[in-house]
Amino acid sequence: MARGACLRPFGAxxxxxxxxxxxxxLIPPAQPPVAPAVAPATALLAGVAAGPExxxxxxxxxxxxxxxxxxxxxxxxxxxRTDASGLTRPADWIPxxxxxxxxxxADAASFFPTYLESVQVGGGQxxxxxxxxxEIAGTRTRQPGFDVPVYRLPPDLVRARVGDAxxxxxxxxxxxRYDADGKFxxxxxxxxxxxxxxxxxGLELGWAADPVEMFFLQxxxxxxxxAPDGSVVRIGYAGQNGQPYTGIGGVxxxxxxxxxxxxxxxxxxxxxxQYVRDHPEDGKALMRENKxxxxxxxxxxxxxxxxxxxxxxxxxxxxVDPAFVPLGAPVWxxxxxxxxxxxxxxxxxxxxxxxxNRFDSFWGAGDAARLIAxxxxxxxxxxxxxxxxxxxxxxxx
Length: 397
Fold this sequence. Notes:
This protein is α+β, with helices and mostly antiparallel strands. The protein has two domains: 2-132 and 306-396, Barwin-like endoglucanases (Beta Barrel); 135-298, CATH 2.40.240.50. The chain is built from eleven helices and 19 strands. Residues 2-38 have low confidence and may be disordered.
């Protein structure tokens, strides 16, 4: 959520490896067996080929209805924004989007083969993880039992002026702050912020009850604060402190803390959280090894916003690498996890969601979503659903 998204992502863990500017995600311990050491930078470089005929796919009606609804919400963006993957142009989507606006959801399964064709990028070997919108105990104002600050974006968090610091590898200026002497320095780390570097500056958006839950909400990139009176504040990714992200799951694995042996914890999000709770001091130190810190903003509307700028929907939205998948495009996944197989719509991105056929499935909010997302690791095949004629046009280029 773009994640932050970013949802922002906002977005999981590698089992805690992810944070995107906006969206941070749950990433399992095993490395995806789909990305070469140096991956092609775009879908066109990775290679595109025709996928299976959509009319022969067993599209589930309920699944298709959810995807059609999510696709409709994406259409204003699809028909107006530049596709970073280079696969489509805004005008390509107009016929499908025009039809989708009036297409009956009761017959959603027939919409996709009528207006779209399947295209495989690279080898089409998919690796899928999961994320969700966590809900934790929290309030707008500080009160007994709610002492963990939820910070909004600080005004002194800025990008360096050209010449004040070396540029990032991608050419952007680094994030940080200017000190009292006007010198550009790195922004405060997680440990420094937790120790009070931002206290008393009026940046508190709310207050959470549990530092462990708050840490993992940051990894997800968005979530909900639920107060004792039942009121809810939805928060989403607003920015990150510019410090490097360290997945604590990877650190735990290196230390032999994750596994199936005696004294080890499972590599799921739940297993990592249990370790942190069972070992408060070591757990606090472990979380602080992740110097990255996420800032939030209050969200309105009926769902967390993804990188596309539209709400992400549980069991319908998926995060992708926009260099390989047009944001807003439907995706068909055929996986070894049946609950994640079917139609999805690319509406989000994630910091660890990189390369062709790398996806992060969104499961909504609640205990069931948390359970599925925390243990989601799926492998199989993926095809993109693009406007009819796309592949022929690409081959002529």
